[in-house]
Amino acid sequence: MAKIEILQMRVGELVENCYVCANKDTKECFIVDPGDNARLINLRMEQNGYKPVAILLTHGHWDHIGAAKELKKKHNIPIIASAAEDKVLSDPRVNLSAMFGMPTMIKADEFVNDGQVIEIAGLSVKVILTPGHTCGGACFYIEENGVLFSGDTLFSCSYGRTDFPTGSAAALFNSIKNKLLVLPEDTIVYAGHMEATSIGNERLNF
């Protein structure tokens, strides 16, 4: 089993959690939800000697994608997102960037689907489609290391809003109950906001 290290950075006006997940043996890494402050993200990777190979987006909201284009250009790496999230990523009104006066459109280089396993930085990452917060939100699960990047689907003792464009409370609760809470209870959940939690803890609170 590859050993990993996860760097967390809180970025942007909405204090979003951006993560860098690195393979400690190869020093390759991927970036999850670079919402802002590409300079800080680059600095942290450089300080640790990490080489980014991909950007993973859990969903298309402005506070999770703001630095993606800059990082993609600097490192010549692909942006990967759920195929069902294309509309959110590409429409400033839907991804809320227009609301904040910074219209942003993202086109993913690679689209992934529910249940697909992608090999990144020597790690097997499973895509779990979790619609609800947005129509094509996805979580990224590294089963071997017991790690889940949940975006804004599941927080510590909470969950994402469903009153934004393409949101659905019924879909979100179904995603959490039937796709996330069935994972092993010791799975560490790295959420899009607030502190990390575990599946076991969230079973007690959902």
End-to-end Cα distance, whole Å, is 31 Å
- Please work out how many helical segments DSSP would assign: 6
Largest sheet: 6 strands, mixed
- Secondary-structure class: alpha/beta
Proportion of helical residues? 10-25%
What is the general shape?
Answer: globular
Helix and strand layout, with pairings?
Elements lengths: L3 E8 L4 E8 L4 E5 L5 H11 L2 E6 L5 H4 L2 H8 L3 E4 L3 H5 L19 E3 L4 E4 L2 E7 L8 E5 L4 E5 L2 E2 L2 E2 L9 H12 L7 E4 L5 E2 H7 L1
Parallel strand pairs: 3-4, 4-5, 5-6, 10-13
Antiparallel strand pairs: 1-2, 2-3, 7-8, 8-9, 9-10, 11-12, 13-14
Tell me about this structure.
The model has no long low-confidence stretch (mean pLDDT about 95). The protein has about 210 residues and is an alpha/beta fold. Helix content is about 25%, strand content about 30%. It starts with a strand and ends with a helix. It has helices at about 40-50, 60-65, 70-75, 85-90, 170-180, 200-205, and strands at about 5-10, 15-25, 30, 50-55, 80, 110, 115-120, 125-130, 140, 145-150, 155, 160, 190, 195-200. A hairpin with an 8-residue loop joins strand 8 (about 125-130) and strand 9 (about 140).
In short:
By secondary structure, this protein is an alpha/beta fold. Helix content is 23%, strand content 32%.
What brief labels describe this structure?
206 residues, single chain, six-stranded mixed beta sheet, alpha/beta, 6 helices, globular
